[in-house]
Amino acid sequence: MFNFLFSVVLLCVSCVTDQHQRLIQGDLGLKRSRLQHGVSYANFVAHKFQHLQGSLLDFSCEVFQTKECAFACVANDPCVSFNVALSPNENGKLRCELLSEDIFGNPDKLTFSQQFYHYSMKVILKL
Fold first, then answer.
1. Three-class SS state of 75
2. Using CA of residue 93, residue 86, residue 3, residue 55, what is the dihedral sign?
3. pLDDT for 94
4. What 3-state class would DSSP assign to 31?
5. Residue 52: CB partners within 8 Å, gap ≥ 6?
6. pTM of the model
7. What is the mean pLDDT of each run of 10 residues along the chain (127 residues)?
């Protein structure tokens, strides 16, 4: 299993549903600040050619880049990990599967996949 740290830059995300959120770049990952709910921060680790067969959230969507999927996960409280397709569909977008489970609680649900990478949170802080 190959792992690497995933960092992202600021980007407007079509999957994000809460209008009162602001995403900003952090030194080591993603931060989210909400008007009333404080700040959330997450580092993602990639598990190449892996797919977690977890519980999909209703917020799953299609994105142009993997970092958009990471922002969507950080922006939705129940999300703790995500799968992202490696190849775009006919619309030029990647499938982004936001999950309420991760590999640490469900290692038996992680399977080899030539179509997906799985990303799990390495660090989660809520201030």
1. helix
2. positive
3. 97
4. strand
5. 81, 83, 99, 101, 102, 103, 106, 109, 110, 111, 118, 120
6. 0.70
7. 43 41 38 50 89 87 93 88 96 95 91 96 63
Task: Tell me the C-alpha distance between 119 and 127, whole Å.
Answer: 23
Residue 102 CA to its chain's centroid (Å): 11
**CA atoms within a 13 Å half-sphere pointing along the CA-CB vector of 18:** 17
Which domains can be identified in the chain, with CATH numbers? 3-126 (3.50.4.10)
Number of H helices, E strands in the chain: 1, 10
Contacts of 95 (CB under 8 A, 6+ apart): 60, 62, 83, 84, 85, 89
Among 47, 44, 19, 22, smallest CA distance to 33 is for: 22
Q: Kind of pairing, strands 110-112 and 50-52?
A: antiparallel
Query: For 48-108, where are the E strands, in sequence order?
Result: 50-52, 61-63, 81-85, 94-99
What pLDDT digit, counting tens, does each position of 20-48 carry?
333 333 333 454 444 445 556 778 999 99
